[in-house]
């Protein structure tokens, strides 16, 4: 899908994660145009996947001076954009 079409769909989506995915695709598009000199209008979203991130470690305090460790996992969103020069459509 073209990156500009993906951004347009994410603007109209009411899902909670749509804002984060929009920011990541927008950032990837800007990085490709600024760092590699690619045309932002011809970029496509080639891959998008979620991987493991860091674990935040927090303490939960209980009665009688006890506590336990709470692990709060995070995720890492990766988006790969490519130039659409060799493709038809």
Structure description:
The protein has 89 residues and is an alpha+beta fold. It has a single domain, classed as Ribosomal protein L22/L17 (Ribosomal Protein L22, Chain A). The protein is 33% helix and 40% strand. It contains 2 helices and 2 strands, in the order H-H-E-E. It has a two-stranded antiparallel ribbon with strand order 1-2. The protein is elongated, with a radius of gyration of 19 Å. The N and C termini lie close together (10 Å).
Question: What secondary-structure arrangement, pairings included, does this model have?
Answer:
Blueprint lengths: L2 H10 L5 H19 L6 E19 L5 E17 L6
Helix pairs in contact: 1-2
Per CATH, the superfamily is Ribosomal protein L22/L17
Biggest sheet details: 2 strands, antiparallel
Helix content: 25-40%
Please name the CATH architecture.
Alpha-Beta Complex
Distance between the termini: 10 Å
SSE string, helix = H, strand = E? HHEE
Number of domains: 1
CATH class: Alpha Beta
Radius of gyration: 19 Å
How many beta-strand runs? 2
Number of helices: 2
Quaternary structure classification: single chain
> Spans of 5+ residues with little confidence (pLDDT < 50)?
none
Class by alpha and beta content? alpha+beta
Quick overview:
It contains two helices and two strands, in the order ααββ. The protein has 89 residues and is α+β, with helices and mostly antiparallel strands.
Characteristics of this structure?
89 residues, two-stranded antiparallel ribbon, 33% helix
């Amino acid at each position: 899908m073209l990156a500009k079409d993906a951004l347009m769909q994410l603007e109209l989506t009411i899902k909670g994660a749509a804002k984060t995915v929009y920011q990541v695709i927008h950032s990837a598009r800007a990085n490709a145009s600024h760092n590699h000199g690619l045309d932002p209008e011809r970029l496509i979203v080639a891959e998008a996947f979620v991987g493991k991130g860091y674990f935040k470690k927090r303490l939960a305090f209980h009665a009688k001076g006890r506590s336990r460790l709470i692990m709060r996992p995070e995720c890492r969103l990766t988006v790969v954009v490519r130039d659409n020069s060799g493709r038809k459509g």
